[in-house]
Automatic annotation (TrEMBL):
Similarity section: Belongs to the peptidase M3 family.
PANTHER family associated with the record: PROTEASE M3 THIMET OLIGOPEPTIDASE-RELATED, PUTATIVE-RELATED
Taxonomic source organism: Deinococcus radiopugnans ATCC 19172
Cofactor annotation remark: Binds 1 zinc ion.
Required co-factors: Zn(2+)
Domain of life: Bacteria
One BP annotation, GO: proteolysis
UniProt-recorded name of the protein: M3 family oligoendopeptidase
Length: 569
């Protein structure tokens, strides 16, 4: 039998020619040269979509392979060659094709393409030739971050560990063990901090140039248009930050201090707080529902079968097809994500599991994304109509964290399942302050900070926000310079302004789960129906299809916090 990693490596291979623009150029030129009437547009769009899928899949596989081998210069070189040699040509050609489409006389898009036609028009207006090569530079800076963090090591108790392996020690009931792990991680993080500072300054400068080239006042305004945020404003985000400060921060503090009191801790030190998995108030060892990645897959397979036979079959397809790489190992990037290979409608999940209950939750989350890819890909032939706007895209993943809660009796006994559920609910509450802080920091950085902002100012602003959104953590006597580096986080480098969506979708996922407790079958069918709509529907419509509201105002947050508080009792 082929080893799982061998199947993964095989899945990520592309032909030599597929990494070169010459493999695609003649077919794009044929699209550009085609006589295009309103009647001919649908067939022409299908050809364009199929070609974009082929090119996009090559880039996705090269990128993923580079993330699995951050210490492999050849893998990094292949991806960077694609970024520099193919992506600029693809961007220019995509703009030319968009302009050709927009110029077709009397063309009226079909209902399932109307939204993306508007998005094409808006993206074309934002396009600038000067930004094509600058986007290559932007990707190169982001890749520097991946290489630095992917090769990061932690020395703990004489052992050399990956970041995920070291982090699992933060869940230990032994406070000394937690503190040792926290200091080991801090030493590792502070060693790479100067390198990451340099990358961030380069990213800020590049992002400012992208905005100026597009005639936007700042990078936030540029990114707002790039992300097609048409259903809410920066002012709505600021109101969300305030709502979280007033409604979620007090509840998070109450929960965290309650755990500390139960454990006899005088205060909550940084090593006593993991927002994803709070300490057990009875001082029990962390839940360890599996040991290896293969065991995790088997546990998840049974859980998905309990939720729905078709979901289980989709996950089985991923297991058999080399579409899961779960183990943590040196040289592999430390984040978790779901990639997508569109030609055959195949999602791919990358993780770094260490045997924790948090790993189980993250797998449900990432495979929820995979289900989104499967269902939208089945229902939507055009590539641009798959997935969804980013304000919805985390609902399929976060909802799956909740929909699986009643199907884990094969891995947890009743007491353990109660702990797991409590951690899941507490995690929503403790996540909201973090999400608001992440979003508030970026609004300041890209719309309010001086253009020549320096690292000291970034550190100071993060420190101020951390004291606002996490006042229940006691840093007395510790170096505030360590606390101030909390902004050195994956999304700040890799996907700017993509974070408030997690909060929006977590709120919606809780609401969806609340509905599922009364009508599990109906909630699941609404879930699938919303996924099938893909990117052919707007954000409010997608939320309605899933049976929830698109809201993140103070009143809504207060209501959900009250619901969670009752559930936690």
């Amino acid at each position: 039998m082929t080893a799982p990693l061998d199947r993964v490596e095989s899945k990520l291979q592309i032909s030599e020619g597929a990494a070169n623009w010459e493999a695609y150029c003649p077919r794009y030129e044929a699209l550009l040269g085609a006589e295009l009437t309103a009647a001919a547009v649908p067939a022409w769009l299908r050809r364009w979509s199929a070609l974009d899928a082929e090119l996009g899949e090559a880039g996705a596989k090269l990128s993923t392979h580079a993330d699995l081998h951050t210490d492999d210069e050849a893998a990094q070189g292949r991806y960077q060659a694609f970024v520099a040699g193919v992506m600029p040509q693809a961007a220019r050609t995509g703009q030319a094709l968009t302009e050709k489409l927009l110029a077709v006389p009397d063309y009226a898009p079909a209902p399932d393409f109307a939204l993306n036609f508007r998005r094409f028009r808006d993206a074309a207006a934002l396009f600038r030739e000067a930004n094509v090569d600058l986007e290559v530079t932007h990707e190169q800076h982001k890749n520097r971050h991946s290489v630095i963090t992917g090769n990061q090591k932690v020395t703990l108790n004489g052992q050399t560990l990956t970041i995920p392996q070291a982090r699992q020690h933060l869940d230990s009931p032994d406070r000394k063990a937690r503190e040792d792990a926290w200091w080991a991680l801090t030493v590792s993080n502070m060693e790479v901090a100067p390198e990451l500072d340099a990358v961030m300054l380069d990213l800020i400068h590049t992002r400012q140039r992208l905005a100026r080239n597009a005639d936007e006042a700042n990078y936030r305004d540029f990114r707002w248009k790039q992300l097609d945020r048409v259903d809410y404003t920066p002012a709505d985000c600021r109101a969300f930050h305030e709502a979280v400060r007033e409604e979620a921060v007090p509840l998070a503090g109450e929960i965290v201090r309650g755990v500390a009191q139960a454990l006899g801790l005088g205060s909550v030190r940084p090593w006593d707080y993991n927002r994803n998995t709070l300490l057990d108030p009875s001082g029990r060892e962390p839940l360890r529902p599996f040991t290896t990645g293969e065991e995790l897959q088997a546990v998840a397979q049974t859980a998905f079968a309990g939720v729905d036979a078709d979901l289980a079959a989709r996950f089985g397809q991923m297991r058999e097809g080399g579409l899961l790489d779960l183990e943590s190992r040196p040289g592999k990037m430390t984040h978790a994500y779901c990639q997508y290979f569109p030609v055959n409608n195949e999602p791919f999940v990358l993780m770094n599991v260490v045997g924790s209950a948090e790993d189980l939750r993250v797998l449900f989350h990432e495979v929820g994304h995979a289900f989104h890819g499967f269902y939208s890909g089945d229902a939507q032939p055009l590539l641009w109509n798959r997935w969804s706007p980013i304000e919805f895209v985390e609902i399929p993943s976060m909802a799956m964290e909740f929909l699986t809660l009643d199907h884990l009796g094969h891995v947890f006994d009743d007491e353990e399942l109660t702990r797991y559920r409590r951690n899941q609910l507490q995690g929503v509450v403790t996540f909201l302050p973090w999400a608001a802080q992440m979003d508030a920091f970026q609004h300041w950085l890209y719309a309010e900070a001086p253009e020549d902002v320096g690292i000291a100012e970034l550190d100071a602003r993060w420190l101020e926000l951390d004291k606002t959104f996490h006042p229940f953590i006691d840093w007395d006597g510790l170096d505030e310079g360590v606390r101030a580096k909390g902004w050195q986080y994956y999304h700040i480098f890799q996907v700017p302004f993509y974070y408030i969506e997690y909060a929006m979708c977590y709120l919606a996922a809780v609401a969806l789960w609340r509905g599922a407790r009364n009508d599990a079958a109906g909630a699941l069918e609404r879930y699938k129906a919303a996924l099938r709509l893909g990117n052919a529907a707007g954000v409010p419509e997608l939320y309605r299809a899933a049976g929830v509201e698109f809201r993140f105002d103070r009143e809504y947050i207060r209501g959900l916090m009250e619901f969670l508080k009752e559930q936690l009792k």
